[in-house]
Design brief:
283 residues, mainly alpha
């Protein structure tokens, strides 16, 4: 936060300087002449006198002229600032430390995902299908109804769970696992260009919302791809993660959540980041 305080001080100093420029331009000539004369005298005295001043190059003289004008505006601005009310000072010197804003946007998505979980609890319709992991599924298969109920209650479903699993299948962080190579070749053949699935396996910023949009746009193609992966195996079976992704893609409630994430990303998330993180030429 030291950097933030430094920026705030710079903001106030700049606000005072800008106020000084306004005052300078508004002063009548009879008031302005003595101010300028004093600044000129101080400037010449500071460099060592008239003879030294006369020996300076044009560029050096212009530099000192600019510094002298800056000091005049600084003095006028400080005097004007002292006359401001507290409210005027707060408005003119307002500085909001926002940081990179990425975690704020990330937290809004995480909060929205939690809100979706609560929404389904109060909804009359069925919530997203639970995408139960392999170990829990095995335990439920041999543990009877009590374990099955526990597995259902403690397991997760929904869009974020699906995009996480999809990242593990379509773009695994370990390039020796997952179907990323087959995925790229399959989609290039179908679409005519190479696509790479958003990096949810590495928890890349905004990757879950982007993955939700990908899954919606190419919904049928993703199901076709998973069936292709299954059928090219000698066992003709999904592994557990692939089965969960296929199950999630076919679930209406999960599909609804994917739409929510994608719409939020396009309408709010990306527009927000575009506003708070413009290119340096717009800052």
């Amino acid at each position: 936060m030291k950097y933030g305080h430094l920026l705030k001080d710079c903001k106030i100093a700049d606000a005072q300087h800008q106020e000084g420029i306004k005052v300078f331009k508004s002063l009548p000539l009879e008031t302005l002449v003595p101010v300028i004369r004093k600044a000129v005298d101080d400037k010449i005295r500071a460099v060592g006198g008239s003879e030294v001043w006369a020996g300076l190059s044009k560029e050096e003289q212009e530099k000192y002229d600019d510094e002298a004008m800056g000091e005049v505006c600084k003095k006028l601005g400080a005097e004007a600032w002292a006359s401001f009310s507290q409210d005027e000072k707060e408005r003119a010197g307002m500085f909001i430390w926002a940081g990179c804003c990425m975690h704020k946007e990330l937290n809004s998505v995480k909060g929205g995902a939690r809100a979706l979980v609560e929404y389904w609890k109060d909804s009359d319709g069925p919530g997203p299908v639970k995408l139960i992991n392999r170990d829990t599924t095995k335990a439920a298969a041999v543990g009877g109804s009590v374990v099955e109920e526990w597995a259902e209650e403690t397991s997760e479903g929904g869009a974020v769970k699906l995009t996480s699993l999809a990242g593990g299948v379509f773009r695994h962080k370990d390039d020796k696992k997952g179907q990323q190579d087959t995925y790229r070749m399959f989609f290039e053949r179908k679409l005519g260009y190479i696509v790479t699935f958003p990096d949810t396996s590495n928890t890349r910023f905004q990757s879950h919302c982007n993955a939700a949009a990908e899954l919606i746009v190419y919904w049928e193609l993703f199901k076709e791809f998973l069936l292709f992966v299954r059928d090219k195996k000698s066992t003709r079976n999904f592994n557990h993660m692939e089965h969960n992704v296929y199950k999630g893609l076919r679930d209406p409630a999960t599909h609804t959540e994917l739409c929510v994430l994608a719409i939020y990303s396009e309408v709010l998330s990306k527009q927000y980041m575009k506003l708070v993180r413009p290119g340096k030429e717009k800052r």
